[in-house]
Amino acid sequence: MDFFPPDMIKFIDLAGVAVFAISGALAALRARMDLLGVVVVAAVTAIGGGTTRDVLLDRHPVFWIEDPTYLMVILAAAAFTLGWTRIRRPPQNSLAMADALGLAFFVIAGAQVTQRLDHSWAIVILMGTITGVAGGAIRDVLSAQIPMILRRGELYATAAIAGAGAYLLLLESGVGERVAALLGMAIIVALRFGAILLGWSLPVLSLRDAPGPTAGSDAPAPPGAADGPGPADGAGPTGEQGSGGGPGPTGG
Asked: Structure pTM?
């Protein structure tokens, strides 16, 4: 099976690094971090997923150590984001949109890297998904947000799995690799944009609440319920009226 030429794989990888670095910088700015914080969050967002993938696959040296171009792209993307946000206010969904594009690039790039190492289809999908979601999860944790992958009903990891799976199925059906990659990325972007703009989500499952006691059941009565009614309002311990009707509890 013919694979992407190395320059094509690197282009997808660099594109994912740039877009994810932008999403990391936006998250850091919204969290009101300083310049160093913006650069750090942009970097870990951009290389976190690929680093996790390479460590799990025992692929050394890690991609950004082997080629420092990735670090230059991260710095350029962070600088671009800082300059852009000084000129105009980013749209409300800019972080989610950038994240969706980065997810699409990284999932397919991660799947392709794993495929070149002759792993099974299940490992290819898993590593593609990890490549796509790990960096964003680290970004969200560092900026004190619930990671997108854990937010209720979000089509996030689901979109990654669907895109990587579609990519492999298209390859098996004889579709060219570039076309399969573009279609796989399109599926991921479509699912994420649908979730962001149209509210698409997975159904949320939960356990049913335990039924409460019914009338006539053997449920224990509340304390004191079996002792009958208590003393009337204003009565003393012996049932005598405390005022206007004779002596009070002490006889005074």
From this structure: 0.75
